[in-house]
Automatic annotation (TrEMBL):
Membrane topology according to the record: Lipid-anchor; GPI-anchor
Originating organism: Betta splendens
GO molecular function: signaling receptor activity
Domain GDNF/GAS1 positions: 32-113, 149-229, 241-335
Entry keyword annotation includes Metal-binding: no
InterPro entries xref list: GDNF/GAS1, GDNF_alpha, GDNF_rcpt
Chain segments annotated as coiled-coil in the UniProt record: none
Residues spanning the signal sequence: 1-20
Compartments where located: Cell membrane
Region (Disordered) location: 381-404
Gene name of this polypeptide: LOC114864546
Signal is among the record's keywords: yes
Protein name, as recorded: GDNF family receptor alpha-4-like isoform X1
GO cellular component: external side of plasma membrane; receptor complex
Membership in a protein family: Belongs to the GDNFR family.
Length: 453
């Protein structure tokens, strides 16, 4: 019996070892850049990958003929069988090498079908699906009948990084290109993405999804992303939604953000949040990821939280249903609608078992603590500019073109020590009232001591 057990152990060990050598599947998603680095060390793997790159380049120009497409698919199968980590790899949002990673991700997935497109290339395994930062942001927004979008804007103005990056994208989205009446939409989109990727979510998404109960608040929320440049066509024309999607699929970043949205905002009638993944946070993050691409969505009016793409389904022909399905992912999506509403009432969704984050002090309090500890304050960190980008001013007060684009400024003044007493902050008033109360109390105590003495 012992001999038989030993033989079986050796047998299965050999089978598992041989299987692992043929299909060494990684236990967790690997970064695609790292997976490609490992592949590059193997000449055969590298040759297969370069062949797939040529196939992808040819497919972007025109559809591959049947024989060439079959050869490319065989090459893809051979590559993934030899190096399956490339099939399992994922990317991370907002990192410096995100676009390089996404390029690799899509090159080994030639000619994906509709189901393949809806698989997100981003790794969410390490993320808190309830998004503690958004819980904090939605908690900040729970104030009595106050203009929540104005409050979120003031919070952004108090945080130097949020304020400077917001000023950067507003200027890029309102500045007309030389010799024309159009804005530079490409630069506008790029600076919008930088704002959403580099500013903490409790500030950036708090501005995007602030709850409104009146049209004044709703108009501020609708104009947050400068829709006259980032969202609408300058001449008011709307493209066909399927044409817009086709252009998006030609760009690795837009293609990835769209796949992430379709995956994380997929509706379901069986979950409490109406999301297939039952995570309002993941849906909000995926929706925000589309802002700054050709598929940028926005609020359609100042009286509701309804959103839409800037497109229609005219001229769709026999693809009408497909176009309508894409359009309704934004206009009639209960998962997306509930996720946006959740920012105004987070208690309506199931309570997360993850403990709530500790309250964070305001940036000005953090600055005082850092100065006391001889640390540099966070807002002194300069925003890095890539070499191909021109330097953008950090304020928009001198920009006289803002009114033309219908921009509502976040806040009239930067919050500094010298302006804390200006109208709108009320800080100095509270300090003076506190000092006066202290003085009166001291006078009363001295009077009492004299009378008793």
């Amino acid at each position: 019996m012992i001999l038989l057990g030993t033989v079986l152990v050796l047998f299965f060990s050999g089978v598992l070892e041989s299987s692992a050598s043929i299909y060494p599947l990684p236990s967790s998603p690997t970064d695609c850049v790292e997976a490609h680095r490992v592949c590059s060390a193997d000449p055969q793997c590298q040759a297969l990958y370069r062949g797939l790159e040529l196939c992808a380049d040819d497919a972007e120009v025109s559809p591959l003929v049947e024989q060439v497409a079959a050869e490319c698919l065989e090459r893809q199968d051979a590559l993934l069988a030899k190096h399956p980590a490339l099939l399992m790899c994922k990317c991370h949002r907002g990192l410096r090498r995100e676009e390089q990673c996404l390029h690799i991700y899509w090159r080994v997935r030639l000619q994906p079908g509709e189901d393949e497109l809806e698989i997100s290339p981003y790794d969410d395994t390490q993320m808190d699906t309830r998004m503690a930062s958004l819980v904090a942001a939605s908690t900040f927004l729970q104030l009595d009948s106050e203009n929540q979008c104005l409050k979120a804007a003031q919070d952004c103005s108090l945080f130097e990084k949020c304020s400077s990056l917001r000023s950067e994208y507003v200027l890029a989205c309102t500045k007309m290109t030389a010799g024309s009446t159009r804005c530079n939409q490409h630069k506008c989109h790029r600076t919008l993405r930088r704002f959403l990727e580099r500013v903490p979510e409790e500030y950036s998404l708090g501005v995007l999804f602030c709850p409104c109960t009146n049209t004044l608040c709703g108009e501020r929320r609708r104009k947050t992303i400068v829709p006259s440049c980032s969202y609408e066509d300058m001449e008011g024309h709307q493209a066909n939604c399927l044409h817009l999607q086709s252009f998006c699929r030609r760009d690795d970043l837009c293609r990835s953000r769209l796949a992430d949205f379709l995956n994380n905002c997929q509706p379901s009638p069986v979950t409490t949040s109406s999301c297939l993944k039952d995570s309002a946070g993941l849906c909000l993050r995926a929706y925000a990821g589309l802002i700054g691409t050709i598929m940028t969505p926005n609020y359609i009016s100042n009286s509701s939280a309804d959103v839409s793409l800037w497109c229609n389904c005219e001229g769709s022909g026999n693809q009408w249903q497909e176009c309508l399905r894409l359009q309704r992912m934004f206009t009639h999506n209960p998962c997306l609608r509930n996720s946006i509403s959740w920012m105004g009432s987070p208690g309506s969704l199931p309570v997360d078992i993850t403990p709530a984050p500790a309250p964070r002090p305001s940036p000005l309090v953090q600055e005082d603590e850092q100065l006391l500890n001889n640390h540099l304050p966070e807002h002194n960190v300069r925003v890095e500019e890539s070499e191909e980008e021109e330097e953008l001013p950090k304020t928009v007060e001198d920009n006289n073109e803002g009114d033309q684009f219908g921009v509502i400024p976040l806040y009239s003044e930067r919050a500094t020590v010298s302006t804390l007493g200006s109208p709108g902050t009320g800080a100095t008033g509270s300090v003076h009232s506190s000092s006066a109360a202290t003085t009166i109390l001291l006078v009363l105590l001295l009077s009492a001591s004299v009378s008793w003495g």
